[in-house]
Structures are given as C-alpha cells and as structure tokens.
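Quarterly update from the structural biology core.
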Amino acid sequence: MADDNGRAIPSGRLSRLGRFGRMAGGIAGGVMAEGARKLASGERPRMSDLLLTPANATRVADQLAHLRGAAMKLGQMISMDAGDMLPPELTRILSRLRDNAHHMPPQQLDKVLIAEWGRDWRRRFRHFQAQPVAAASIGQVHRAELPDGRILAIKVQYAGVAASIDADVDNVATLLRVSGLLPREIDIAPLLTEAKRQLHEEADYTRERTMLERYRTLIGDDPAYVVPAAEPAFSTPNVLAMDFIAGERIEALETRGQEERDRAAHALVALVLRELFAWGTMQTDPNFANYRWQAETGRLVLLDFGATRDILPETRAGYHRLLMAGLGGDRDAVREAAVAAGFLGEAAVARHRAAVDRMIDVILGEMTREGPFDFGDRSFVGVIREEAQAMAEDRATWHVPPIDTLFVQRKISGTALLCARLKAKVEVRGMIEAYQNA
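Predicted structure, tokenized:
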C-alpha cells in the first residue's frame, strides 16, 4: 500500500460509487471462492463465515482507506465500537483504518488551498511541509511555520468529502444489508440519519474551531491536559489552523513503566467522567490518533473536536443510574437500569435472562473488586463474549440503543480499549464514586 499513499482522493459521486461497486464485486468474488473451497473440503459454509474472511476484510479496509470521508469513518467506528466482540482477525484488519496513511498528493492539496486561501497562499508561510504529519478520515494535517517563527498545525479537508457524506453512508448501509450482516428487522434509518448529521458536523471546520475553543475553556489550567489554541487568520470551513503541539503517539506508552501508563490512563478516564457528568459535553471520537502524550510534562494532548456533542440530560441520568447500581453490586438494579437506558432490549432480556444475569455478574465482579481496575486483564471479556453469542445469533431480539447513548458508549468503549492497550491500572471505582451526587 505504500506506493498508493499519494493517490488523489476520489471526489466525484460517480468515481466514489465506482469504488463501492468494485468493493462489492471483490467481496462477492471472495465469497464464491471461499464457498467453493469449503464445499470441496466437505464443509457446509455459512454466509457469515464467507463474508468475514480476512481476504474480504482486507478488500474493505483498503477500499475504505482510499475513499476516506464518511466511508472510512464508518469503518473506523466498526473497528473501535465492536472492541473485543469482533473476531480477532477482523479487528486487526479493520484497525488498520485508524492508522492508514493515504493522503492527497501535492497537486490536489495545492488546488484545495488555492480555493481556501488564494493563489499566493505560500507567501504567508516561512515553510509549509507538503508531506502531512497525519492523515485521517476527513482531512490531513500539515506542519507550517509562520514568518514570526510560530509553528502551526494546518488541518485540510479532503476534496469532495463533505459532498459525499450522504451517499457514502447510504452505500455502506446497502453493503451491510446486501451482505446479510444486518437483519432486515432492524430499522437503522434513525442511525443513518444521525450518522450523516454527525459526519456533516465533523466536516464543518468552523464548528470544530468553536468546539476546540470551548474545550480550552472547560479544561482551563488543569495540568493533566493540553489543548491547542486555534488560529483564526488561517481557518475556514474547510481548513482548521491551530498551534502545533509537540507530543508522541499515545501508543508509544506501551513500552513505558507502569506508573507513566497509569497516569495517562487516569487522565483518559477522568476526562470521560467529567465530560459525561460535569460538563454535559463530550468529544465522542476516541480514535487513538486524537491523543498525544508529552513524556517530559506528563500531560495528555487532546486533538480533533469535530465529533464533540452535547449529551442529553436523560442519557447522563441513565449512565448515572447504571453506574451507581453497579457500585452497589445490585444485579437486578443493574439489569433494570440497562433496559431503562436502552442498552438492553426488553425482548432480549425476556428470552435470554439467564445469560444477561451471568454477564452482569461478571461485570459486577470486576467493578467491586478491591484495588485499581486492571485494564490489561481481559480474561472476563471471553466469558462475556461466550454468553453474548446466543443473544447475538437471535436476530429477532436485536436492539438499537438510543442514538445519544451510542455516541457516548463509543467514547467509553474506545477509552477502555486504549487503557487496555496500555495495560493500565486505574482506581476507577473511587473516580466513579466522586460523582455519586452528580
């Protein structure tokens, strides 16, 4: 894939539709080949087994990485949100979408910046680094130096991404429907509508600048975090300029001492709790690339505020009730709170009550254990996955939680996944108890 890193991002509706067509065709061919192989070996293949092959997942990951925009964003969401519940092979392949380095070639970048800043835009900088320092789903980031020596991070939106959002979301949904991965009984229309709305907001860099400035105010002088300041003179609806903040990838902490890893994880968990219970405002994209770590200061750098949203009071209340029931170790109260908050559907609880209770017991055992929570100990995940299997196969009881809850849970699950990656130990129980009266 290295030689593809500078290919132009498809910006036209037809060129993007063609990409989806080739992706679907490749998947179909892969299904036929794998099906023939299994039949030849005497096996009776299931469609889900044929679809979720590493080869097909690679096809999807590579195509979404080139399309960028909403298509890639949805792929990232799947890899992040599913956490430990996806097959390990599929999780590893989809996780490539969080780190993929496709970006606009210089000619396409120049065309975008001329449209935003005018033909003489290069004269405004002492140096503008053409090779991006980061490439994400909606835009890429460049390092630039102003004549006065100030260093900026310039986030430039990919050409055509905003205009492609609605069609990309519909195309991904169609692929999921046609593949049979989504049961027809599930009404995903509200989720698709919300996904489009959120992605349009993420593509609005003027809005993101407002959220960035709000976060700087909320964080204040807290020594645990760093939030860059925006630079209005270079910011437009498609370009966001801000201070360039030095820091290393958060994953680099994996090789550091336990104390440093725990400090970073504590800051991550504390931030989620403040967002949910103190501020009512949350940055809901926990992509690892949105964090940096300053080893010399021990501070967590927060980046990318496009997915920031206000949390509904009923969502905050639902999480509060659920967590307090968990702290109390009351299985019945946890089950009732999970249904009331929309985490569990009543039909699923009615038909799989024993499995639900066993999962709750496992979670309560982890929550009520003395000492710091060991995110690196994932032994309980396998138990939950096994119990959830029968529920997952019972498609008649599938349930879509409230939209607001889905976005909050995305942040919580992604944060837990990052803390697990760091094998951190955090006194989570005490941190939650601090919000008992929130």
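The first strand starts at residue 127 and ends at 128.
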